Amino acid sequence: MRSSLMKYASLVMAMILILTVCEGAAAKQEKRKMENAANADEWMAAFLGEHPEELDGVWLMTAQMEAAAARSGGIGGLAKQMSALGKAEKILSAYEEELQGYKVFHVPCVFSAMPVDLLLIIQDGAIAGLQTGVYTGGTDEKETESDVFDSIELNLPVPSLRELPGILTVPRGEGPFPAVVLLQGSGPSDKDESTGNLKPFRDLAEGLSARGVAVYRFDKRTYVYGAELMSKKDISLEDETIEDAVNAVQLLARQDRIDPKRIYVLGHSLGGNAVPAIAGKLKQSPVNARGYIMMAASPRPLDVLMREQYDYLYSLLPEITEEQQAEKDALFAELDQLQNLDSMTEDDTVAGVYASYWKWLAAYDILQTAEEITEPVLLLQGEEDYQVTMTDFAIWQEAFGEKANWQMISYPGLTHLFMPGQKSEGSAAYTREARVDEQVIQDIAGFVLAE
Question: Does residue 407 come out as left (phi exceeding 0), alpha (psi in the -120 to 50 range) or beta?
Answer without folding.
Answer: beta
